[in-house]
# Entry
Amino acid sequence: MVLTSPVDETEGAQGLPQFLELEQYALDHHLGKIISQSWGATENTLFASAAGPQGPQVIKDFSAFYARAALANVTVLASTGDAGTANVETDGVTIYPFPTVNFPASSPLVTAVGGTSLYADTSGNYQSETVWNSDGGAGGGGISEIFNEPIYQQLSLPKTVQAELKGKRGLPDVSYNADPSTSILIYLSFYGFPAGYYFIGGTSEGSPQWAGIVADLNQYAGRPLGFLNPALYAVGGLGLWNQFGRDITVGNNGLDGVPGYSATPGWDPASGWGTPNLVELPTHSSVLLEH
# Structure
């Protein structure tokens, strides 16, 4: 089910209270067990200094909602953004000169989905994958300035990463193909476009595709998996991610002169743990379901 708001989201708090009302409606009326969010605002535009008191209140209200969703075994996903670490200020044009991340992906109660460039041969066989950073776009990721490092990251990430995070939430948690040059095909019939098939890219495609994966996992498990991050980090921390996904170790998400983060073996602020590998769902998903 797709929920739409009559108020557009811009940088800062505008539109976010209405988005929250839609998500609350979905939770209150039990419309599903997975929420995918393909929207985001630069975290810094929600500081009181930029948005006034409404900014911190929006963060507080969404955080309470995500906690409710977790208690209801509802999985919540969010795209990390398409500008790497170079996100815009409240005017929608000026870029912060230092690395920033987007909310709601930065929430510790959300599974944040970053972006990669996935290459396959003409038969569709997997060849390689890097952090998406091409043609003016890059997968979002970095370190939150608002949220403290959650316990699942404290328990699973090595000391070298802890030193980089400095006690703050790191994102993304996972990634998915997002490069427009390695695009997917969708059917579009709204928003003023002629109805038909279009190639798209961006992390906005990763969040709903992860939602589809979670729907399959829910069906296979016979129960809703709910909040994914503790299981994802338990699997990754035990060195078992390769049984469920692919570790991305190449690429950097810096853009427009703003420093970025490099992919490394294991978790990193450019690709998280990596991307899913679910060619055979029962075989590859069991390690996640067990944790």
User: Anything to note?
Assistant: The radius of gyration is 18 Å.
